[in-house]
Structures
1.
Amino acid sequence: MTGSTRRTFLKTALAAGAASSALGLGFPAIAAKKPIKVGAVQPFSGGLELFGNQAKLGLDLAVREINEAGGILGHPVEILYEDNKTDPKTSVERTTKLIKRDEVVAVTGPITSNARDAMAPAHGRLKTPLLYATNYEGGACGRYIFSFNTVPNQELAKLLPHMNETAGDSYYMFGADYVWPQKMFETAEGIIKRLGGKTVGTEFTPWGVKEFAPIVRRIADSGAKVLIFALPGADGITFIKQAEDFGLMKNVTVAFLGFSEAYLGAFGAGKGQNMWVTVPLVSSSDEPGVQDFVARIRKNAGGDVTISHYVMTHYNALNALKAGLEKAGEPDREAAVDGVAGLTIDSPTGSVAIDAASHHVTLNMYLAKTEGAGLDTVRALGSLAPQSGCA
Amino acid sequence: MEQLFILTLDASNFILAIVLVAMGLVIIFGLMNVINMAHGEVFLLGAYTVVLVERAGGHFWLGLLLAPLVVGLVGLVVEELVVRHVYHRFLDTILATWGLSIAIKQAVVIAFGPASHTVTNPIAASIEIFGTPYPVYRLFIMAVAISVIGVTFWLFFRTAFGLAARGVIANRDMAACLGIDTRRLDRLTFAYGAALAGLAGAVMAPIMSVDPQMGLGFLIPAFLAILVGGAGHLAGPLLGAAAIGGTDTLTANLWSPVVAQIVVFTMAIVVIRLFPRGLAGRWLGR
């Protein structure tokens, strides 16, 4: 009996030793497993802090829940936040530092496309996954890039047919002069043609313009019934305010691209009403999964914070990393890529499937509109697959 | 004809908005030789004063009244603590005021958060002009700008203070020898410039997003207007704003805002190349 126990013990010890050296952790790893580090390069100053803070809400909750449930493969998770100052050059410096000095297993972020495009080559060269979780124009592809938010077709495919039915079939497209609105409008153009609608004008504006009277006038004169609007941030808010003043919103229904709850309250009481959007999360939704998620985020943040889809997509990104590493069985960078690709995870709005080849996600979308002081779900659209723009 | 009238109305509106911002800037930049990089943030403080007043339950008009006073006071403090130490080091004024602008912006983020705030439009009505609705509040902004121009010109050309101030600008040492308190004039001029920016921020707040980055949107055209118009004369920003704002609105109307920006910057480069002292320097002399 005694002998057999000792033999069993030896076997177990040997197996454990073999297992841990296979993990590359050295021998006394079981006693105190060293934390798995994950980087987060986000704007916490310089203009887009609103979105950086949204990402942080989701990441903070994900880390806490993962650690409370025993970590990843027994390792605690630690998230290292870096402020990219809303600047591409700083983003590259921060992510390089995270990868080389802190030896993170993956990096989440950033928000803007120019920061992402600046960071992507570093991630390819240093072979570290970048978990991007912002809605964007598509086409960011590669072994080390994952996208956890939407691409143009997911936002437009159901939104435009709805506009066509309810508001009218003539469209004016107006947005900021950079890649995301341009790709959005390209996709929109195709959908409008299929619907038999017509585009009466397409227009772009440089960043930082604060006077929109000429454009508001031109949109009104065009007789368009629907304004497809892709001017993010403060400029967008300024435009909507001025469009309200000039009475444009009475004659034109706005399809607001890239909308999130972060905009609510910025237009003034009773303004910015009846603007239509499709988003991966509406935080006022009565779906039990969403309500539970919203409650958990608020409890973790310790206050009545605004919750937009950015909170959820960043939360999803970290949970996908956990599931991927557990599937691959190893806490390293290559295992993360292999593990996350092709994975389907649970999320507050149902399952999220990460395509094995394109690394983009199929997820549930919701048609919603601004009403009163909130964003109200009009209907659940079911899951929509991405046209990632990857070959 | 109608088209032309509406175009003129839009252009005047934009030009006067630029003048409103540029006036304070030209007083500090042109007359005191301080490039105030924090001018946009002073504009910002004006807008946030209104936000604060509205939050405390006060009305917009109270905020509009308080904004220039509060911001003028801030200007007084800033002049005393920072700017007066760098008057004679031209390049350092850029660094000092730039640092100040970052500090103010981040202080606003800490105090009010990074999100956009909204200021209620106090005159929601609009009037019909040739069948298109025109917001009355925009007419009010134009009236404010014209009053500001009037008061500023009166102050600098019709009062003892203005005479002394222009004396200091023309020859500081001589003015001091003649018994003019140059410190007091610097302080008052800086505070007046800041107060104008504060007023501009407050009056523009209802028609734009009030957020920590809002200062930049009008600061760039205002700087351009001063460069084009000439910094040496109070009339500089008027000419400059007319050139910048007029070109911008016209091109944006006939073509697109993207082309408008290209045209405006090209024009600015050409004017600065041909008339280094600006349009006012060319035509009004000094």
2.
Amino acid sequence: MITLNVNGETHRVDVPPDMPLLWVLRDVVGLNGTKFGCGIAQCGACTVHLDGKPVRSCILPVASVGARAVTTVEAVGQSPSGKKIQEAWLALEVVQCGYCQSGQVMSAAALLARNPNPSDADIDAAMAGNICRCGTYSRIRAAIKQASQA
Amino acid sequence: MDKPTYARVDGATLSPSTRRRFLQGGALLIAFAAMGRRKAWAAGEEPSLRMLGAGDADKDGAAFQGFAPGGFIRIGRDNSITLIVPSVEMGQGIYTGEAMLIAEELEVGLDQVQVVPAPPNEELYQQPLLKSQSTGGSTSIRGAWVPLRQAGAAARQMLIGAAAAQWGVDPAECAAQRAIITHRPTGRTATYGEVVDGASRLPVPKDPPLKDPRDFKLIGRSVRRVETPSKVNGTAVFGIDVQVPGMKVATVTACPVFGGKVASVDDRAARAVPGVRDVVRIDNAVAVVGDHFWAARKGLEALDITWDYGPNAGTSSNGIWADLKARSETGQPVQARRDGDVDGAMKAASKRVEAVYQLPFLAHATMEPINTTVHVRPDACEIWVGTQVPTAAQGLAAKEAGLPVEKVILHNHLLGGGFGRRLEADSIGQAVAIAKQVDYPVKIIWTREEDIRRDIFRPAYYDRIAAGLGPDGLPTVWTDRVTGGSVMGHYFPGGLEQGKLDDDAVEGAKETPYRFPAVQVDWVRADPPVPITWWRGVGPTHNVFVVESFMDELAHAAGKDPVDYRRALLQHNPRSLAVLNLAVEKAGWGNPLPGGSGRGVSLHDSFGSHVAVVIEAAVDPAGLIGLKRIVAAIDCGLAINPDSVKAQLEGGILFGLSAALYSGITFAGGRVEQSNFHDYRNLRINETPPIEVHVVQSAEGPGGVGETGTVSAAPALGNAIFAATGKRLRSLPFRREELRSQGSGRDVLSKGPAGREPADNDLTRLARTGE
């Protein structure tokens, strides 16, 4: 049994220790907002926060999470930076197909939490690990800036 | 952007018997073109709406009492309004666009409606332009433009008629706004919900008058999309997110060589993996079923499969290219167009220019990997998936399950990208073949590796193009020979007869924005030994790269500015000329740029729209291509939701630039050489320049938009690279090795056939840690 703190709730899960956190969240805990995109930490669709820091859950063994708090897209709106990001995302109509946007929102919320006024270069550095096939990048950049002014 | 409105896509309160009652309630039918003929709802459609939240509402037997004029509108006695949209949402904003068409004429706000996707039903939801219930080809708005407005107008007329009859007044004295009918002389009002019973008894008007566009309240305004709130908080349900009670999770590997089969499987190690429940073998693939995806994946890795590779084990990219070249030179072409004295004009030309262009196979790489959830029961097959072709998928599943089509219940979902991949139902057929061997629901998820390697690819093309120039430098004759596989031959049942023209193969080549005195366009069919299909932008994405790159070559051969050169050929085409002029003006065409930089332009008329794009790029001594700025101008006729038009241009251009810079599927030993986002690369935010999109105000009927930006991208970039370096790149993806300056000491980390791995270790670190 592995004990996880996900979005403020404690879950005890009976899974292999090498099972990536992504699949524990999706197939065991039942939180499907976090997405599978590549399985090799190339696309960022699976981004969640560990103690507020963004990580790629598709390659993170669940046993390595320990006592750190896991936050997923379902709960990121409860933090001030997450809420601002979600609001800016909607205000600027960032989203197209939306499949990568859970990861985009999580990466952006983590950026805004540690850097309230990011430059273009800061945004590029924080967001370059998140692929969007629909090509929403210019709106992502604008939305992060709008959120930083909110 | 204007003040947004919003609506929810979830929470629909329709249930199966509710919907039966809609149709029992009266002979209410709106017959418009191919949309809207009445037919009893097949059992297979019912749960699709239930999936969207109707759920248990019907358990008490309370049937819907309301107004259901045709397939698109449901209004309950409680004034609940549901709009059922025929096209699938894959990012293009069509739930919103189609809802706007209905809501405009129905006189309701988008904040007052729930939008739900149509269940499979060709009778009700056939797309008039595609002649099937499909979403693709940038046709949705063009197909829906008249029928959906007529549906709204007819319903409004019936509701007003019912209120007027109830009040004993002239309907002409009544008006509707935001689902409330007002009798103007007295000020009496009724909600739509209050008159649904009366409206249900009225005949459906055959040809309801449509609003004057000057009176539009929604159409032409940028409004908030209806489904996006669920996509930023994790509540959106894509096919891959479906949870069915008792469901197991599987992953699958098909023979790495197309056409190969499973010879034998040793699954002992796989079955020993904790959490593995079953190993299922089908003709050409093996699936492992587990309690969760991780168990299934570990199990799959533990399989020892012996394949019978079949006849394609020797397939290679080199072989395919050699075949395309040979057939281009010696094959029998199918003529698409021949006008004027082509041979005579070529002989008489002051100057002749010719070139060969090559375009690679492409994968779709939708962000949501291919997946299907299936439950095969003795008497029915239930499917949860996101597909562009719900009825075709239903039919294929029925065949695979050995059930009548009405016993296949398909619940369609949001698509995590389509780009043409989900016009194919191959993976749904495979999923049924696997699921029918187990007695529980199973969600089959392809790994990204499987998604890339077992994609159905955009064909490779080998195109020879030539022109003769007159004394003024303008073309007097133009010939374009396309050589490649037939997508239509692959896609349509029965294929395409040899000797017949595949219109897709020459779309964008046969008709260009320009006028030439003599022109010949033909196609040599060369079907490759790998499966091929539609890819965003279809024919134009391929052909416009060739046409617009070559147009640039001709301008330079004539010593003219590429924009002036095009203008001279556009005097008959004011809409294209206008977007060209707008784009170059906004881009500052002609203004000086730093050394190593250049601007390139492309222009095309595709999908009923006119688009010009200017890209500014810089090429460094190592051959690295930097994107500096993108300016686009589009005349798509009346833009229904202008912000969505801009978004589609922005995204479509970046999609095309990913392909131009990085993408290419190659084969060796019959296998696809790429496997994931490290070797099938995609543009990232740090490579994305500022993008401006200018939407021309137009009163023309709407054109298609979703694919137009993709069409523009590669030629605009290729022309910018030429302007920056003087080097003409005629093969995609652009190889930066060809752009390296002589004597440049800088080496470029190169790996894989695409050869454009980022040298930047930081990127790898970023991808892995998110920091």
